[in-house]
Structure formats: C-alpha cells, structure tokens
Amino acid sequence: MFRKKNFQSQKNAKQPNKDLKDFNDLVQIMKDSDDFKRISLGNTKNIEIYYYQSLINTDKIEVSLFGKLKDAKIDNLDVLENLLPFSEAIKTSDLEVMEEKLLTGFIALKFINNSENILLIPAKFEVDRQVAQPEIEFSVLGPKLAFIEDINTNINLIRKRIKVPQLLVKNVEVGKITKTNIAIIYIDGVANKDNVDTIEQRITDLEYDQIMDSSFIAQMISDNSRSPFPPLMDTERPDRVSSALVEGKVAIVVDGSPQVLIGPTTLVEFFASYEDYFLTWPIASAFRIIRIFAVIFSVLITPMYVAILTYHYHIVPGDLLGTIITSRKDIPFPPILEVLILELTIELLREAGARLPTKIGQTIGIVGGIVIGTAAVEAGLTSNVLLILIALSALASFTTPIYRIGNTIRLLRFPFIIFAQIWGIIGVVIAIMFLVTHLLRLTSLGRPFLEPLYPPRWRDLKDAVVRLPFSVQGTRPTITTAADKNRVNINRKRLKRVRRK
Q1: How far is 284 from 276, CA to CA, in rounded Å?
Q2: Range of 339's domain?
Q3: Cα atoms in the Cβ-side hemisphere of radius 13 Å centred on 456
Q4: Is the pLDDT of residue 152 over 50?
Q5: Looking at the structure, do residues 397 and 424 belong to the same domain, yes or no?
Q6: Does residue 10 surpass a pLDDT of 90?
Q7: Which pLDDT band, with edges at 50, 70 and 90, does 367 fall under?
Q8: For the chain, what percent of residues have pLDDT higher than 70?
Q9: pLDDT of 15
Q10: Are 163 and 243 within one domain?
Q11: What is the C-alpha R_g of the chain?
Q12: What three-state secondary structure class fits 283?
C-alpha cells in the first residue's frame, strides 16, 4: 500500500475530469443532486450563483450576499469582488479549484456571458461539538481538554501549548473519494527529519478511496500490519501530544477524528499514564510498576490455572489444593473448557457494555457480571476459585491507560490458554518466547518497539518502567533520534552550578 524505502517528496496532483471543458460542464454533473442550487440575481439577472445547500451557512449568505446583489448593477467580477465583504474570496478559471471549493462549502458566482472566470466565496456550514473533557484517558489531575473531530480546532489546541514558530504543519490530502485532510505536525530543529519524511512518504503514497479516521492511517502506514500491537500511539489529550512533540516525535492529525497519532512509539509508553507527570516521582513510579504487574497477571493467571490443574497440580500447597478440589468436585468440564466459558462470558459483557448507551451499559456490566457469575457457580458450570481469578484478571486488564493496548492484552490470553492446555507450564514458557520474539522484531517507523529495554538504552530507563525526577531528565528519548537531544540549556545549567559554589 506504500513504499517504505527511497523517500521521494511527491504530491499526487489531482487530475480534473478530462471530459470537463468549462464551468457549465461541471454544473451539468452537479445539478443532478437535489441539494445543488442555481440562482440568478442582480438588477438584470446577469449574476448566477451556484452552491450546495447542505454545505453552506444559509443565514450568512442571505444577509451578506443576497441582500447586496438583489438590485445591484454589476457587470464584471472585479467590481463584484470589491462589493462583497469576504476576505477569502477566490477568482479562478481552474476547473479543479472550482470543483474542490464547491464541494467544501464555497459559493460560486459568475456572469452569464462569462463561463471561464468564477468568483468563489467561503460560506462553510460548521457542525462541530464543543471541546470537552477526555472520556478515554481521563485524569484527576492536569488539563481537562480533549480533541474533537475538527482538524483546525485540534491544531489550535496543540499550538496553544507550543508557542514557537518552529512548530510546523504539513497538510496532505488522502482518499480518492473522501479527500480527507491530514496534518503532519512536528517541531523543526527537534524532530528527526527522517521520521518526518518517512511518515510523509507513507501517507502520500497511500492509495485508498476512503479515510474516515486516524485508525485507518495507523493501520496503513504500520511497519507490520499483522501484529496485534498498535504501531503508533493514539491519544485524545492535547497535553500528551504536545509533550510528545517536544520530545522530538511526530503527530498525525486526521480531519474527522478525535484521536491524534504519535510516532515513533515504544511498548513501555502504552503503560504510562500522562497523569504520572502530575504526581511526585515515587508515587508515579509505583503506579507504573503496578500497571505492568497487572498486565502480566492478566495475561498469565488463567493459562497458569489451566496448566497447573491439568499437569502440575502437585506444585500447589496441600491446603490450597484441597480448596480447589472442593470447588471443582461437581464441575463436569475440564479446566480448559471451564476457563474458556468464563473468558468468553467476560468478553461478551465487555462488548455489550461498550455498544449500549452509557447508563444501560454500566448496568449490564455490573448486574450481568454478578448474576451470570453467581448462577454459573451455583449451577456447577465453573468453580468459585476460577471466578475470582477471572474477575481479577479482567480488573487488571483495565489498568492500561491506552485503550488499544488493552484490546491486545485481552487477545493475548487465548493463545496462552491453548499453549497451557497442550504443554502445561512449558507451553506457557513457549508462548512467552513467541511473544518476546515477536516484540523484538517489531518496529515503529523503523525504530525498535522494545526500546529502551532492548536494545538497552540505560539513559532512557529514567522514564520507562519508573519515572525519575525531572531534574535527571535532561535529554530527549533515544527512540526519537531528535536533532536536539538536550532538553535543557547545558551552558546555563553549568553557570548556575558555578554560582552556587
């Protein structure tokens, strides 16, 4: 779908329809749509106005346009342009520009005796929701703003936090039919130019008819589209994107999407909540370690249950083994089937809660979990010990601050369970080896996905598994290969040390 090597800055210029000879031919195509309007105005009805009623602000044009032109005596576009109070008016004879602007909320004005030059007036009708609090990456501390579906608003939220002229925005249009506007954002002099060029090349080279969300871009420009791990981080928080840009990363904003992509990224970043930076470093480090152990627990606890009860029950302490035997004495299913029934039940409850309206979804999740779990134990379909383990596993998977990595964790449990049933604990170890091998081979924009764990980057461990004080984080992460590696002015820092002495 794209070329990964030999970057060439090519803009796939849109070719106008070769069958169109003038503006009248374009009108013949557009008039078949019921929302395309054609009106004649002026004292002698010599001015024709064309627009899509569904795309423009009708209240705006009735006051600013129709009122001024109703009885006006005008015979050329220059006079018409000076009469109208629109600073962004465009006078053109380019059919491609005419088509593009009419389809994005412009009004076309022309004189009956002139079918070449057209005056385009902006009157776009905006339907956008207000900037609100984050819903997916909510935090108790810190800013309470989230991106929305409008690309200009999202860029504005980023520029409010990074007030430097080096913050550059490159616009690319992708989608043969949707013609979606995509903005590539980075800080010149900080971001590595290779990362910017790689992203721009991959997006420019995309050949697809529709781009509806940033998720489309993340999948299409991924280094490995078959991996369950997200290739780029997506976030709804402007503060997180701004912080990533300052680190030397690149952001991708897609018009119509409230999620912004950040790259390159690493695995450990998916377990770091941005709220960690609003807490003291010992507390933030403790929470990160808890999240990592919670994810490991979520993936391994049910496979270990299957492996131990199927092959290795002798390693369980006697007192605990008695409890487990008592809880399973009336269960007609082997451990593997018992686990799969409960795991699939949990997934059904999750999907039902996510797809239903908020209040109903919360009720279904809580009541459904209690009712089904209690009924399953009383009916002798599963043991109460396993029910506790499954519930803890589900809770542990919710500790991941990024939604997409949570989905990956949910998926990983099932192959681990299969391996545990076939080979026991050895099967779990084999599954871990497969997982680690896959992670070692993964890259994000050509950068190792396991950094700074492998290859080991000791300098970056200060903000990986733990978060050390800001005073020791004087350099940017190695994965960004930033043009400017220092986050502080080294000379001023040395001068302050000398003055203290």
Answers
A1: 5
A2: 277-448
A3: 1
A4: yes
A5: yes
A6: no
A7: low
A8: 86
A9: 46
A10: yes
A11: 29
A12: helix
| Distance, CA of 444 to CA of 269 (rounded, Å) | 12
253 CB contacts (<8 Å, ≥6 apart)? Answer: 151, 154, 155, 158, 182, 183, 185, 214, 260
Q: Please indicate whether residue 74 or residue 96 has the higher confidence score (pLDDT).
A: 96
Residue count of the chain: 501
Rounded CA-CA distance 267/452 in Å is 9
Is the confidence at residue 386, as pLDDT, over 70? yes
Query: Residue 124: beta bridge partners?
Result: 56
Residue 425 φ then ψ, to 5°: -65, -35
Let me know if residue 18 belongs to a domain.
no
User: Tens digits of per-residue pLDDT, 193-231?
Assistant: 999 999 999 999 998 888 999 999 999 999 888 899 998
pTM for the full model?
0.83
110 in the same domain as 45: yes
Looking at the fold, whether 318 and 436 belong to one and the same domain comes out as yes
Quick: pLDDT tens for 75-105. 677 777 777 766 677 888 888 888 888 888 8
Mark residue 125 as left, alpha or beta (left: phi above 0; alpha: psi -120 to 50; beta: remaining).
Answer: beta
Contacts of 263 (CB under 8 A, 6+ apart): 195, 199, 231, 232, 233, 249, 250, 252, 444, 445
- Minimum mean pLDDT among 29-43, 304-318, 482-496: which range? 482-496
Domain total in the chain: 3
Give the tokens for residue 59.
């209240």
- Please check whether residue 158 lies inside any domain of the structure: yes
* One-letter identity of residue 293: F
Closest CA to 369 of 338, 391, 389: 391
With vertex at residue 41, the alpha carbon angle to CA 39 and CA 44, rounded to the nearest 5 degrees, is: 130
Residue indicated by tokens 């004495």: 329
Mean pLDDT of the chain: 83
Please tell me the predicted confidence (pLDDT) of residue 252. 96
Q: 193 Cβ partners below 8 Å, 6+ apart?
A: 483
Q: What are phi and psi of 241, to 5 degrees?
A: -65, -45
Pairing of strands 90-92, 118-122: antiparallel
- Residue 287 and residue 260 share a domain: no
- CB contact at 8 A, 456 and 465: no
